[in-house]
Design a protein that fits this description.
Length: about 150
């Protein structure tokens, strides 16, 4: 089962790919000041894709009609519930940079090169999801297969 989703936002422009990273606020109970991709939990009677669309808007102010389901399932151990959580992973791609409107949950954002992912993201699934998206962006047939 799952309660959590992940959304990767990228810009593919002039043969360069950049990935969005959001820095969590110091006031966050979980992982304060950590850099991350967009994440969130499902609301009552909400499916994963609808949660991804909602979280994109809430955490970044962005929206789009073009979505991808990454062929990557994240996961983590939830110590409070003593369960293993599977994490459906989605992506959106823009052709140019967008201004991100941060929620109170985050204090800043950055657009990362592939070589910067490990320096910013401490959670391996955030790195792996970004790398899967980058692989798909370099192969238009793969990208088409996973469009929603």
């Amino acid at each position: 089962m799952f309660r959590t989703i992940q959304v990767h936002v990228a810009v593919a422009k002039e043969n360069e790919i950049r990935h969005s990273a959001l820095r969590r606020s110091e006031s966050c109970k979980l992982f304060p000041t950590m850099w991350q991709t967009i994440t969130g939990t499902l609301e009552l009677n909400e499916n994963a894709f609808d949660a991804a669309k909602r979280e994109l808007k809430e955490e970044s102010g962005l929206s789009t009609d073009v979505w991808y389901k990454l062929p990557f399932l994240g996961g983590f151990y939830d110590i409070k519930r003593d369960t293993i959580e599977s994490v459906p992973t989605f992506a959106v791609v823009y052709e140019d940079f967008r201004d991100i409107i941060l929620s109170e949950e985050h204090t800043e954002y950055n657009w990362l090169k592939n070589s910067e992912l490990e320096d910013f993201f401490p959670i391996p699934d955030h790195i792996n999801g970004a790398l899967q998206l980058e692989k798909m962006l370099r192969n238009p047939e793969q990208l088409r297969i996973f469009s929603l």
